[in-house]
Amino acid sequence: MRKAAPRCAPCQPQMPESTRMKRRILLKALAMSPLAYVLNAHAAQARPFDFQKVRTGMLDRLAGIARAGVLPIIDIESSVNPVRIDLRAFMRAMDQSGIAQMCLSVDQPGDLVKQGVSWSHAALEFAADFPDYFIPVGNGANEPAWTQSPDRFLNDNERYIIEYRYPMMGEFEFRHYPSPRQVERGQWNRDVDIPIDSPQGQRLFAFAERSGIPLQIHYEIEDRLLAPLETMLARYPRAKVIWCHLAQIRYSARATQYGPQLLESWLKRFPNLYIDTAFGPPQSVYKPSAERHARYWTQSAQWKPLIEAHPYRFLAALDIGGDRMDRVNEWSATLRAFLDTLPPKTAEIVAYKSAWKLLFGEEL
User: Fold this and answer.
1) 21 within a domain of the structure (yes/no)
2) What span, in angstroms and rounded, lies between the C-alpha atoms of 247 and 286?
3) Helix-strand-coil percent breakdown of the chain, rounded to 5?
4) Is residue 334 part of a domain?
5) Is the pLDDT assigned to residue 285 strictly greater than 90?
């Protein structure tokens, strides 16, 4: 069993006085108005992401966590509500859990979308202030910004991903059941079903192919959905697609074809396909189906050989969201339990080396 992450921070965040002043301005805006804060992150102080400028600090943080005897992790997929996050507490949880960097996206609250805020650069600002901790990701394509105004969202996505050099696009929800927490709250508005081969899907994949920037998709695992995704991967062979949530199946009767053999054939046919490994703990039950939807735990003996054979195609992920920003430690424990099922060298690649290679083109 690998050593657990230390409860003390291996790296304390350092912030220059100029950045402290900017943060005070942002916090003042937050105290006055959530909308003012998000618009502030939209303003002129946002700067394009400069990987070469922050590369050394990121590598130092990875090495520092490893020196503490902890396997460092780059989380490929998490998002936050930019007007509610306690950033310092969030970073302390990252330190405690050995999360070196988090690919952070913004999920815009619905009330801000209604007020005309179509894009936020808050993730870019977080990465500028704390470059050792955060890798900025394009805004999450979710309800309502994506579902109600998809073409406007794609316009913003295409403009800002290039202009601000985001290294990855956010998670696009094509087929998405309400999360377990939303089910408990009776929030069914996130039951999203947008065909992946729709005009919007074609436009997104074409942009990903032209730009070379990876995109993430939330696409439930169901028999009827497999053929359209297979067609899109073949049609856009240079679009780097991260299919989120390995073996997360909400309704087993609707997913009779998916398994390690099918996914292995796809990984061999489609070198542009990647898989993130965010899924729930073994006991997690999806209430609408009354099924344990994280299928890896009961089928790990079948999945492990596939991951060992293609480790650079699998990416560690937490899937932190706006309604669970205080659960970094809990979600990290589940991710580490998964990594502990893999051989050490494979786990090391999945934990951070595969993300680094995909995003920055370097093999650590």
Assistant:
1) no
2) 14
3) 50, 15, 40
4) yes
5) yes
pTM of this prediction? 0.89
Query: Residues 59-74: pLDDT tens digits?
Result: 999 999 999 999 999 9
Contact criterion met (CB below 8 Å) for 190 and 143: yes
Q: Burial level of 51, CB count in 10 A (0-12/13-18/19+)? A: middle
Q: Is the pLDDT of residue 348 over 60?
A: yes
Q: Indicate the length of the chain as a whole number.
A: 364
Phi, psi values for residue 215, rounded to 5°: -125, 155
In a domain, 22, yes or no: no
Kindly report, residue by residue over 35-89, the tens digit of the pLDDT.
444 444 444 468 999 999 999 999 999 999 999 999 999 999 999 988 888 899 9
The backbone torsions φ and ψ at residue 351, rounded to the nearest 5 degrees and listed phi first, read: -65, -40
Domain of residue 263, residue span: 48-360
Cis peptide bond upstream of 271, omega within 30: no
Number of domains, the chain: 1
The enclosing domain of 271 has a CATH number of 3.20.20.140
